[in-house]
Write a structure and sequence with these properties.
- Keywords: Hydrolase.
- GO terms for molecular function: hydrolase activity.
- Its EC number is 3.4.24.-.
- The protein has five helices and six strands, in the order βββααβββααα.
- The chain is of the alpha/beta class and about 180 residues long.
- A hairpin with a 4-residue loop joins β5 and β6.
- The N terminus is likely disordered.
Length: about 180
Amino acid sequence: MLLVTQAEVEVRRSTRRRRTVTAYRDGDKVIVLIPARMSRSEEEHWVAEMLARLQRSETKRRSPARQSDEALLLRCANLSARYLGGKANPASVRWVPPMRTRWASCTPSDRTIRISERLRDVPSWVLDYVLVHELTHLLVPGHGPRFWELVRNYPRTERAVGYLEGLAAAAGWEIEAED
């Protein structure tokens, strides 16, 4: 995870911009948009302010489950209790190097779940959807109607599927959201 404070910063001045200052991440770089009339000291102030805001925003989106396999397992226990009646209990859940065609996988016979490292930086509600999806495989194999009925107990299912489809398309990955 690249921290905002370690990122390269590019300041872009605009004659059309009058009062507002904006910052966003573009790959490994943070772009800060400021009015052209700002002084260098104002620029320094606003760059520091916008980096701090961006850091807070990115931190809020991060799930604590990103920190370790143990944290993932704990998150799964919470999600299982909340959305699957506590019936889905994996033996292990772990982060693995990026998978070529999947976001995650589950082996019901040994109750293991593997989550692609590609999901470390997605919003927490997207990671939660993937975890609920894989937990449901511990209860129902395949992607039949009963499977989807249980997965849809998670209220952001449709949004998360759309997010993952968009992420895969934008990155050029051949990942199916259903897997």
